[in-house]
Amino acid sequence: MRRLIQSGFMVLLAIAAFTSCKKNNLALNSNVAQVSSLTAPTDQTAISLQPTGANIVFQWSASSTQGTSLVLYEVAFDKAGGDFSHPIYKILADGAGAQTQATISQDTLNKVASNAGIASSSTGTLKWAVIASVAANGKMSSATHTLLITRPAGFAVLPTAMYLTGTATEGGADVTKSVVMKQTSAGVFELYTSLQPGTYQLTDKPSAAGTKYYLDANGTIQLGTSTTTVTAATKPYRINLDFNVATSKVLSIDSLGLYMSAYNTEIGKLGYIGNSTWEIAKLPVTFYQFSWGRDQRYKFILHTSAGLEYWGSTLQNNLDPAGQPASYFDLIPVTNDQWNNTYKFPAAADLHNVKVDVYFPATGTYTHTATAFN
Asked: What's the CA gap between 311 and 183, in Å, rounded?
């Protein structure tokens, strides 16, 4: 028994020694050599950023770290006077950090420049270097380069939601009742609403914690808690905001007419009733008599301070509405062609009244309804 125990003990010692040796053989070399040179972009390179510009490739020499240890790289950015002790932004190199280059979008560089305090439509200085790391040991490159960055107009970080609030708005001064805007693309918003005498501002959240914006005297979107003043009488507007270029367009709407193709004229006007909705409660409709039958085609004309806009069907040639899906009534901007992109009134509308509602909601498609009654 004693021999058996001694033999087992020796086996365990051998296994332990083998395991220890194996661990030692695979131990990482945590020493890392600095990157000694940066190759692109060259020092003092001037870059004029564009929202949709091509990616910029940052390149450097490989670390001369010895052994089998895997070296990972990061590009570090800092302000003009920074020493990289607390970089404002770091980006992993291509190939999950293993390559000696990093492909960086101009959109990302715009955000980095914004973090460095460079204002939109302005030029400023940005520094970059490369961190080489093995395990938890990282060293900043001995070389640094300076970039002269010109930022485009607009915001580096685009809001993903936008609301209108203030005494001039339909929601009033209570920010929790802010009017939500429709996002049509990244950083771009639209709203059909009414404005009355008072003030308004923009916020990315319907709460006091939201980031606030305002429109200056030139219609440029600015960051801050200032407000925009409305002095004109209450009327509907279309408000368009593009945070990509910090521009706005506030267009007043005079009326919305229902245009009947066969008569080649508007047969009635819808009134704005709030909540991005226009309505005519009672519109007498008479189909036009042609030799082949009676015509019931129609679309809409939006009268704005910039001119007329025609709104109609997504289809050039439309069918009768009976049995059609809800998308039949969707509204899009169309041409002023007398017949194309029109809808058809339901058969019951002929020689009767129709209630018509047009909706420009913050969610979903722009659409309308047309309901016949006696």
From this structure: 20
166-197 per-position pLDDT tens digit: 999 999 999 999 999 999 999 999 999 999 99
Query: What is this structure's pTM?
Result: 0.75
Q: Dump pLDDT digits (tens) for 73-102.
A: 999 999 999 999 999 999 999 999 999 999
Cβ atoms of 112 and 124 closer than 8 Å = no
Q: Identity (one letter) of the amino acid at 136?
A: A
Q: Cα–Cα distance between 132 and 135 in angstroms, integer? A: 10
Q: What span, in angstroms and rounded, lies between the C-alpha atoms of 335 and 309?
A: 8
CB 95 within 8 A of CB 86: no
Q: Where are the alpha helices (DSSP H) in the chain?
A: 2-26, 106-115
Pick from 103, 77, 104: nearest CA to 90: 77
Token digits for 77?
């950015």
Reduce the DSSP state of residue 303 to 3 states and report it.
Answer: strand
Report how far residue 178's alpha carbon sits from residue 21's, in angstroms, rounded to the nearest whole number: 68
- Cα dist. 47→4, 22, 27, 43, 100 in Å? 77, 51, 44, 12, 21
